[in-house]
Amino acid sequence: MIPAPREPGRYRVGMVCLGNICRSPMADVVLQAKLADAGLDDVVSVDSCGTGGWHVGDPMDDRAAATLADAGYDPTRHRAQQYADHWRDDHDLLLAMDEANLADIGGRGDRVLLLRDLDPDEPGAVVPDPYYGGDDGFREVLAMVERSCDALVDALDDLPDLRAAR
To answer: What is the CATH number of the domain that holds 97?
Structure first.
């Protein structure tokens, strides 16, 4: 389901949402932690961005950070950045949070999917934006992100190029 690496033994994943302060940084932090747990963090790198530039340089939303911290993740290193066209060439896989984000980065392609295309419970669903809601929305997003990232780690672990590099 995921494409092979562009460079043998290395893989770059980019998470994309609207402002890069809620969904994509949550996915970035979760995936980094799960890659470390799987021993893949030396061959897979992760970053995130937003299609809009309103929050460039800012930390993630306080509610997103608190939700991650409550679940045992470290949200402190994140600083928002904006998507640029070179991301499509620089990453092995871009994962958008919803259809609008997907359209903003040029639509689906061999290396561009929705994050929840990997979700075993609801493949192809979107990660809803929790920004205008309450804390429950952030917890729901975290559950979606964790399931999808678990599936992504399994898929990455199955790539022969990455297995050989470890």
So the answer is: 3.40.50.2300
